[in-house]
Write a structure and sequence with these properties.
Length: about 325
């Protein structure tokens, strides 16, 4: 009986620990001197799953912004989209300390924040659990469906705060590697205009504080979606951009190319009233229960103002540019 108890205790402790080694990129082999030296390999056992290498960043050596630490002394930065290099991607990969147990319920958590100098924002952050490494020999898209993905149309655009992501799942018993990045090609990647006055035209994201292990029950989590190559499970974003405030685009290009064709508002609640005004202040559109379906295709190019009235009476104001550029 004592032996059985000890075996159960050892099994429980192994399951309760964080199965992601060096989860905050704190243990480094040599000092970081340059942000462009493929430094993520210094935070072993993390490694780049391709030619492009994620950056190991200290706040005082961050040329893409001024993000404070989520925890510890370092975090990583990864390119999800590069407007000047077709389908260029960076992927971050790590080998777990042990293979996940079949039928066990696990919790995967991490923190993310958009860089101040991101040229665009995107919702295309995917994570893939595999039995073997998916390391690529080039810098192009890893053409595999992610196991989990951040919510569609909810771009990670908060440059001031670290956003917590959490997902509960049941393992199939083969998972040993975790790979992180954008698994869609450029044509399928949704982007939202961010900062036009930057020197690199990227969607650049900070990541930190990973955890994979036993879950603490969280009543606020939604039920996970069914997983399939066409429908990867989406992450529950716990404190998405200041407790669920709407994420409103500042660019609309209704030309059918799949990028910004529709005025999609992230975190949109039911029964919100959207009113759009032209430069002269005249109403050109109003919907008392907006459902992310305005294209503006009938309007001339130019700058427009919007008013989004929430069901609780709060109002958000702003503007966006409409440009019906032609597909090449």
């Amino acid at each position: 009986m004592i032996r059985i108890f000890l075996l159960l205790l050892i099994s429980y402790q192994a399951f309760a620990q964080n199965l992601i080694p060096n989860p905050g990129f704190e243990t480094i082999s040599t000092p970081v001197k340059s942000r462009f030296a493929g430094n993520i390999e210094k935070a072993a056992p993390w490694f780049p799953a391709g030619v492009g290498s994620p950056d190991l960043i200290k706040p005082n050596d961050n040329i893409n912004g001024k993000q404070a630490l989520a925890e510890g002394s370092n975090y990583t930065g990864i390119i999800l989209y590069d407007a000047d290099n077709k389908d260029f991607r960076e992927y971050l990969e790590v080998k777990l300390t042990s293979t996940l147990e079949a039928g066990r319920e696990y919790c995967l958590r991490f923190k993310a924040s958009a860089a101040d100098d991101s040229w665009v924002f995107t919702d295309e952050l995917g994570l893939k659990l595999t039995q073997d490494s998916v390391r690529s020999k080039d810098w192009n898209v890893i053409d595999e469906a992610p196991t989990f993905k951040t919510r569609r149309y909810e771009t990670i655009s908060d440059t001031s705060n670290w956003i917590d992501f959490e997902f509960i799942f049941t393992a199939n018993g083969t998972e040993r590697f975790l790979t992180i990045g954008n698994f869609r090609n450029d044509a399928s990647t949704l982007i939202q205009s961010a900062n036009k006055d930057v020197w690199l035209r990227l969607a650049y994201l900070y990541l930190d504080d990973f955890y994979l292990g036993k879950c603490n029950v969280n009543p606020n989590l939604t039920e996970p979606l069914d997983i399939s190559p066409e429908n990867p499970r989406e992450f529950e974003q716990i404190n998405i951009t200041e407790n669920g405030r709407p994420i409103i685009p500042n660019l609309l290009t209704p030309n059918g190319d799949g990028f910004n064709d529709v005025f999609v508002i992230g975190n949109l609640k039911r029964y919100c009233t959207l009113t759009i005004f032209n430069k002269a202040g005249s109403k050109v559109y109003i919907s008392t229960n907006y459902t992310n379906d305005f294209t503006g295709s009938e309007l001339p190019d130019g700058k427009y103002n919007y008013e989004l009235r929430m069901p609780d009476g709060n109002i958000t104001f702003g503007s966006f540019d409409l440009f019906k550029k032609k597909k090449k």
